[in-house]
C-alpha cells in the first residue's frame, strides 16, 4: 500500500495505491489522524489504483467520517474501481459518502 | 558350517529357529575368541618360560663343557640357541602386544607409572643382581662361570621383558591421535624390526657391511617415529613434573641395561653375547630415544603448559555455557559460570557483575572489591558517560579521574552483556598490573560474554515458547467456546430445510449466524459479520448474539431490530469497528418472510414459480457506522412471499471475496449465482456442498483469508396442516 499526498491550496489529494488491508489501514489511519489534515477543507481520495479494501480499511474511513463532517471538511472519493465501489455500496456507504467517477467531477462537487 | 553345527549340537534341537542358531553361533565365536586370547596368553607365557629355561640349561651345559675341555670353545648348537632366543623374544613381545589395553582417557602419567613400576624396576633388579655377583666374586673370591652365566641370563630375561613392556606402552602413546599414515608407518616399523630377528636366526653378524646401512636407515626411521609426542601436550603442569621424574627413571633403566650388556660384550667366557642380537639393539634404541624425546619435550614444554591448561579450561567453560540449556540451568547459574570463567580466563584480581532487570540494576557477583569502591568507579564512569559500552583502560594511572580514586588496580575492562534488543548486564574486571587485558584475553572474554548472551536469549526463548504454548491452549478453548455459540442444528420441520457451513480463518472469527423460534409458525434467522478478524471480532460477535437474543425476545420487525441493535452497538463498538447483518423472519403460516439488511451481502434467491435466480437489491447501512438517530433513515424492510421449492442463499463476504491462488480474481456474486442456477433443484445440503466444493476448487487448498459462512434454506412443497 502506498499513500501519496498532493496539496493544492485548501485541497489535499490522497492517492491510494495497492491493497488496503488490516496492516496498511493502520498507515492510512495515521495519515488521516494527523492534526494538519484539519487545515484543509477538502479531502479528495483517488482510488484508481486501489485494488482491494478490507473491512478494516472501511473502518478507518468510517471512524473519521463524523469528525470530518463536524469540521465541515468534504471527503470525496473518485476514480473508484467497480469491485471496490461494490463493497462500499453493499455496506450502504455510498449513501453516506460522496463517491464520484472522476477528478473533474470531484473538483466540481468539492467547490460547490 | 558343518563343524559349526556339530559344535553347537548339544544346544540345537528341532525347534531351534534360524535366528537362535545364528545368535548361538555368534556367541560361540565370541566365546572361542576369548578362550583363544586366554589360551594364547598362557601358551606364550609357557613358551617364554620353557625357552628361557632351555636356553639357560643349554648355556650352562656349554659353559661347563667349555670349562672342562679347557678353553676350547664348543660351538655345538648355535642355531638351537638362536632359535631359543628368538622364541623367547617373540613370546614376550607378542604377549605384551596382546596384553596392552587400548588407551582409556588422557591420564598419560598413569601409563608412565605403569611402565616404570612394572618394567623399569627390572633394570634396578638387574643392577642389584650384578652388584651381588660382583660382591660374591670380589670379596668372597668365588670364581664361577656358571654363576656369571646365570646372572647374565637372568639379566637377559629382564631386559627382554623391559623392552617388550616399554615398546608396547610407547606404541600406544605414540599412536595417540594417530592418522592413517602414522598407523602404516608404525606397522612397517614393527614388521621391519621383527624381521631383523632372522639375522639372529641365520647367525649373521649385523655389524656386517651389508647390514649396517640398513640398521642406520632403521635408526633414522626410529628418529622419525620419536617425533610423535602429541600426548605430552595434554599433561598439566603438575603431571608433567611427575612424568619428568618417571621418564628420568626409565631413562636410567635404559642406561643401566645398555651399560650392563656393553660391559659384558665380547667377554671371552660368555657362550652367547646378546649384544650381537640386532633386534635388541634396535628395540633399545627405540625405547631409549622415545623416552629421551618425551623427557626433553616435557621439560621444554613445562613453561608453556599453563597456557595450554588455560585454553583447555576456557574451552571446557565454553562447552558448559553452551550446554547449560540442555542441562536445564537457570539464568543465575549461567551468570555464575560467566563470572567464574572470565575471572579465571583473564586472571583478574577483582571484578563485579551487574545484572539489569527492567529498570533495576543490581550487583549480583563481587570479587575482592567492596560496594563503596564500586560506587566510586560507577560515578566516575557515569561522568565520562561510558557505563554500558565496551571499554578497556590498560593504564588507569594515566587518567586523572581514576588516579584520584586511589584504586589498587591498574587495568579495567568493561564488557556489556547485551543483544540488539536487550541489555542483560555489565561485567567489570580489574587487574593490578598495567596492560592487564591484551587483545588475546579480550577476545576470549568477549567470546564468553557473547556465548552468555546467546545462552540467556535461548533460555528466554524456551520460556517464551512455553508461554506461547499456554496461549495456544487458551485459544483452543476460545475456539470451542465460539463453536458453542453457533447453533449446530436448526429445528427440523417439514416446511423448510436448512444447511449451514462456517469456517474461521483464524482460531476464532467474526462471522455468526443464529435463529430464534418466535412463535409456532415464525422463526427468526440472523447472519452477521464483524469487521476485522480474530479475538476482537470474536468478542463483538458474542455481543451481537446477545443483542439478537435480547431484542428478539420482544418480537419486533427486522428494521426495528436493526435500529435498536445499531443504538446498542454504538455504545460498545470500537470506533473503527462495524457489523453487517441480515435478519429474516419467516412466517410459514403466511408463506412469506420479512427481512432487513444492514450492510450485509445481498441475499441470493431462487424463485421456483418464475424459475429465476436473482439477488435482492435493497438498501441498508451497516451497524455501528452512523451512531445516532440518523441511522433510522438508512434501513429498509422488505416482505416477500415464497413458493414451495424456493431457495434462499445467505452468506458472508468471505465467500464472494475469496480469491484464487494467484490473488487476481474474486469468487464473486456472479459465480455464486451461476452455481445456484445449476443446483436449485437439489436438497439444501447438496446445494451447499456443491457451492462449497466449487469455492474450494476456486481458492485451492489452505487458502483461507477471511471467515466464511454459508446458509442454504429451501422451502418445501409439503406444508404441514396447522
From TrEMBL, chain A:
<protein>
    <recommendedName>
        <fullName>Anti-sigma factor antagonist</fullName>
    </recommendedName>
</protein>
<feature type="domain" description="STAS">
    <location>
        <begin position="1"/>
        <end position="110"/>
    </location>
</feature>
<dbReference type="InterPro" id="IPR036513">
    <property type="entry name" value="STAS_dom_sf"/>
</dbReference>
<dbReference type="InterPro" id="IPR002645">
    <property type="entry name" value="STAS_dom"/>
</dbReference>
<dbReference type="Pfam" id="PF01740">
    <property type="entry name" value="STAS"/>
</dbReference>
<comment type="similarity">
    <text>Belongs to the anti-sigma-factor antagonist family.</text>
</comment>
<dbReference type="GO" id="GO:0043856">
    <property type="term" value="F:anti-sigma factor antagonist activity"/>
</dbReference>
<dbReference type="InterPro" id="IPR003658">
    <property type="entry name" value="Anti-sigma_ant"/>
</dbReference>
Amino acid at each position: 500500500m502506498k499513500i501519496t499526498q498532493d496539496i493544492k491550496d485548501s485541497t489535499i489529494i490522497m492517492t491510494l495505491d495497492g491493497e488496503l488491508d488490516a496492516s496498511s489501514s493502520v498507515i492510512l489511519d495515521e495519515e488521516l489522524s494527523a492534526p494538519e489534515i484539519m487545515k484543509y477543507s477538502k479531502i479528495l481520495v483517488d482510488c484508481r489504483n486501489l485494488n482491494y479494501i478490507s473491512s478494516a480499511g472501511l473502518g478507518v474511513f468510517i471512524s473519521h467520517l463524523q469528525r470530518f463532517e463536524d469540521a465541515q471538511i468534504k471527503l470525496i472519493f473518485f476514480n473508484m474501481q467497480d469491485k471496490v465501489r461494490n463493497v462500499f455500496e453493499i455496506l450502504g456507504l455510498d449513501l453516506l459518502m460522496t463517491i464520484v467517477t472522476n477528478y473533474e467531477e470531484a473538483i466540481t462537487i468539492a467547490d460547490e | 558350517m558343518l563343524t559349526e553345527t556339530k559344535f553347537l549340537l548339544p544346544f540345537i534341537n528341532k525347534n531351534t529357529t534360524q535366528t537362535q542358531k545364528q545368535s548361538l553361533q555368534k556367541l560361540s565365536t565370541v566365546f572361542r575368541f576369548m578362550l583363544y586370547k586366554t589360551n594364547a596368553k598362557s601358551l606364550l607365557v609357557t613358551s617364554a618360560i620353557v625357552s628361557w629355561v632351555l636356553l639357560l640349561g643349554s648355556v650352562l651345559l656349554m659353559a661347563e663343557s667349555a670349562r672342562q675341555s679347557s678353553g676350547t670353545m664348543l660351538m655345538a648348537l648355535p642355531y638351537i640357541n638362536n632359535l631359543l632366543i628368538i622364541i623367547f623374544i617373540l613370546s614376550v613381545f607378542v604377549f605384551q602386544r596382546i596384553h596392552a589395553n587400548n588407551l582409556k582417557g588422557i591420564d598419560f602419567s598413569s601409563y608412565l607409572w605403569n611402565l616404570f613400576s612394572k618394567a623399569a624396576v627390572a633394570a634396578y633388579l638387574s643392577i642389584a643382581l650384578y652388584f651381588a655377583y660382583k660382591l660374591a666374586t670380589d670379596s668372597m673370591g668365588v670364581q664361577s662361570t656358571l654363576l656369571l652365566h646365570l646372572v647374565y641370563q637372568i639379566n637377559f630375561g629382564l631386559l627382554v621383558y623391559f623392552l617388550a613392556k616399554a615398546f608396547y606402552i610407547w606404541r600406544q602413546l605414540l599412536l595417540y591421535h594417530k592418522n592413517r599414515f602414522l598407523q602404516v608407518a608404525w606397522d612397517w616399523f614393527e614388521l621391519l624390526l621383527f624381521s631383523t630377528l632372522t639375522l639372529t636366526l641365520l647367525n649373521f653378524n649385523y655389524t656386517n657391511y651389508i647390514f649396517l646401512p640398513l640398521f642406520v636407515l632403521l635408526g633414522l626411521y626410529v628418529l622419525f617415529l620419536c617425533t610423535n609426542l602429541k600426548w605430552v601436550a595434554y599433561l598439566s603442569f603438575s603431571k608433567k613434573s611427575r612424568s619428568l621424574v618417571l621418564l628420568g627413571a626409565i631413562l636410567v633403566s635404559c642406561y643401566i641395561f645398555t651399560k650392563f650388556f656393553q660391559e659384558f660384550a665380547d667377554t671371552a667366557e660368555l657362550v652367547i653375547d646378546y649384544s650381537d642380537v640386532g633386534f635388541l639393539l634396535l628395540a633399545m634404541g627405540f625405547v631409549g630415544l622415545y623416552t629421551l624425546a618425551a623427557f626433553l619435550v616435557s621439560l621444554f614444554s613445562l613453561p608453556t603448559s599453563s597456557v595450554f591448561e588455560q585454553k583447555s579450561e576456557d574451552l571446557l567453560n565454553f562447552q558448559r555455557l553452551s550446554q547449560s540449556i540442555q542441562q536445564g540451568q537457570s539464568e543465575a547459574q549461567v551468570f555464575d559460570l560467566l563470572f567464574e570463567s572470565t575471572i579465571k580466563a583473564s586472571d583478574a584480581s577483582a571484578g563485579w557483575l551487574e545484572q539489569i532487570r527492567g529498570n533495576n540494576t543490581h550487583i549480583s557477583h563481587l570479587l575482592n572489591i567492596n560496594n563503596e569502591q564500586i560506587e566510586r568507579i560507577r560515578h566516575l564512569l557515569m561522568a565520562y558517560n561510558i557505563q554500558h559500552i565496551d571499554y578497556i583502560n590498560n593504564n588507569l594511572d594515566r587518567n586523572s579521574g581514576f588516579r584520584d580514586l586511589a584504586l589498587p588496580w591498574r587495568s579495567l575492562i568493561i564488557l556489556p552483556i547485551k543483544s540488539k534488543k536487550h541489555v542483560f548486564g555489565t561485567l567489570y574486571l580489574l587487574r593490578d598490573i598495567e596492560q592487564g587485558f591484551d587483545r588475546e584475553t579480550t577476545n576470549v572474554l568477549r567470546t564468553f560474554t557473547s556465548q552468555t548472551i546467546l545462552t540467556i536469549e535461548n533460555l528466554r526463548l524456551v520460556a517464551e515458547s512455553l508461554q506461547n504454548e499456554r496461549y495456544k491452549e487458551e485459544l483452543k478453548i476460545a475456539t470451542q467456546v465460539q463453536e458453542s455459540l453457533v447453533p449446530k442444528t436448526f429445528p427440523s420441520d417439514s416446511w423448510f430445510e436448512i444447511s449451514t457451513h462456517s469456517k474461521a480463518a483464524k482460531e476464532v472469527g467474526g462471522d455468526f449466524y443464529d435463529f430464534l423460534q418466535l412463535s409456532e409458525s415464525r422463526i427468526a434467522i440472523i447472519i452477521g459479520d464483524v469487521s476485522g478478524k480474530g479475538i476482537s471480532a470474536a468478542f463483538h460477535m458474542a455481543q451481537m448474539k446477545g443483542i439478537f437474543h435480547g431484542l428478539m425476545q420482544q418480537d419486533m420487525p427486522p428494521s426495528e431490530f436493526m435500529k435498536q441493535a445499531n443504538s446498542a452497538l454504538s455504545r460498545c463498538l470500537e470506533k473503527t469497528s462495524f457489523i453487517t447483518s441480515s435478519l429474516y423472519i419467516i412466517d410459514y403460516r403466511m408463506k412469506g418472510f420479512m427481512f432487513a439488511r444492514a450492510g450485509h451481502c445481498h441475499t441470493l434467491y431462487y424463485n421456483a414459480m418464475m424459475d429465476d435466480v436473482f439477488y435482492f437489491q435493497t438498501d441498508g447501512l451497516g451497524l455501528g457506522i452512523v451512531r445516532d438517530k440518523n441511522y433510522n433513515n438508512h434501513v429498509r424492510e422488505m416482505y416477500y412471499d415464497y413458493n414451495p421449492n424456493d431457495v434462499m442463499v445467505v452468506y458472508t463476504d468471505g465467500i464472494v471475496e475469496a480469491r484464487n491462488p494467484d490473488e487476481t480474481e474474486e469468487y464473486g456474486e456472479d459465480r455464486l449465482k451461476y452455481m445456484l442456477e445449476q443446483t436449485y433443484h437439489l436438497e439444501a445440503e447438496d446445494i451447499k456442498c456443491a457451492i462449497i466444493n466449487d469455492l474450494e476448487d476456486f481458492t485451492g487448498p489452505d487458502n483461507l483469508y477471511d471467515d466464511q459462512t454459508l446458509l442454504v434454506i429451501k422451502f418445501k412443497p409439503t406444508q404441514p396442516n396447522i
